[in-house]
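Bumping my old thread because nobody answered last time. Still need a sequence for this structure:
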């Protein structure tokens, strides 16, 4: 089974002017991240607006990403987010992702009403019964109103195919030592404890087995350098850290998916704004992004 370790990049799903997935632009993002040295790619998650695409569009996106992930240095694993508002939808997406060549799944359990622990567990059990792929628990506690506990994560690791967790590094009132607590609860179960949240990660969040980030798919060279330096206990370079921090700070003030699409355009990635109800970034937000992009250390940019 594929583990979820290291730097995992979450690309946007670029769109053509006709509002269709731009598979060539997606392949360029995936291939660029793979060549830069990321440890895995996750498509159709929140950064990739996966819930806005029809089954045939999702299938095309996964296949394009899998094809693009093979680079001279070797094939980078491609994981697929399969969240849906019903267990039936989740299982169907998991099966389709497997059939399209996915190496693993990322799942944030949600429904119209907040779920309790037993309901969450049954979703993962249904996926495990249908698909023999490793699953990363995507803990979107603010959005779903369910924050996975250490005991619940251990229960999932014992009874389902959950082998990792993507936990928010910057949730309000999140206690320090969260990574250590999750590791202790799942000791011996082979669970990778990862973090999301670019501002917190760049700013020096608690060491974790993995970083899950949409920004890394757009500026992979800088993020790979940062991750490798942090793991080695070395200095990543003040200029790169400061620039990534400034970029993360501006993005934190914008609507998440829209901000990534606007940044992609400034970096030369062809894409229309995300599908509604997401709205394009207003001009003042684009101007703030443009100012930071113009200061990218040592690299030419488009836009």
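Sorry it took so long. Here it is:
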């Amino acid at each position: 089974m594929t583990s979820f370790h290291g730097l995992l990049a979450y690309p946007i799903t670029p769109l053509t002017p006709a509002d269709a997935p731009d598979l060539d632009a997606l392949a360029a993002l995936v291939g660029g991240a793979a060549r830069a040295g990321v440890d895995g790619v996750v498509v159709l998650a929140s950064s990739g607006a996966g819930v806005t695409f029809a089954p045939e569009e999702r299938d095309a996106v996964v296949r394009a990403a899998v094809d693009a992930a093979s680079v001279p240095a070797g094939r980078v694993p491609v994981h697929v987010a399969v969240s849906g508002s019903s267990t039936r939808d989740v299982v169907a997406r998991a099966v389709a992702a497997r059939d399209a060549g996915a190496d693993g799944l990322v799942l944030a359990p949600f429904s119209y009403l907040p779920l309790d622990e037993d309901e969450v567990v049954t979703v993962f059990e249904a996926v495990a019964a249908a698909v023999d792929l490793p699953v990363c628990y995507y803990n979107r506690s603010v959005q779903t109103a369910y924050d996975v506990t250490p005991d619940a994560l251990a229960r999932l690791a014992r009874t389902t195919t959950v082998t990792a967790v993507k936990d928010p590094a910057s949730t309000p009132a999140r206690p320090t030592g969260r990574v250590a607590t999750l590791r202790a609860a799942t000791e011996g179960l082979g669970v990778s404890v990862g973090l999301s949240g670019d501002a917190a990660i760049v700013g020096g969040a608690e060491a974790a087995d993995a970083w899950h980030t949409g920004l890394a798919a757009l500026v992979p060279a800088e993020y790979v350098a940062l991750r490798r330096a942090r793991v080695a206990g070395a200095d990543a370079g003040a200029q790169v850290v400061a620039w990534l921090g400034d970029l993360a700070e501006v993005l934190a003030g914008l609507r998440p998916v829209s901000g990534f699409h606007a940044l992609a355009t400034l970096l030369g990635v062809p894409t229309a704004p995300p599908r509604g109800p997401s709205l394009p970034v207003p001009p003042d937000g684009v101007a703030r992004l443009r100012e930071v992009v113009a200061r990218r250390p040592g690299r030419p940019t488009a836009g």
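The first helix runs from residue 23 to 36. Let me know if any region looks off to you.
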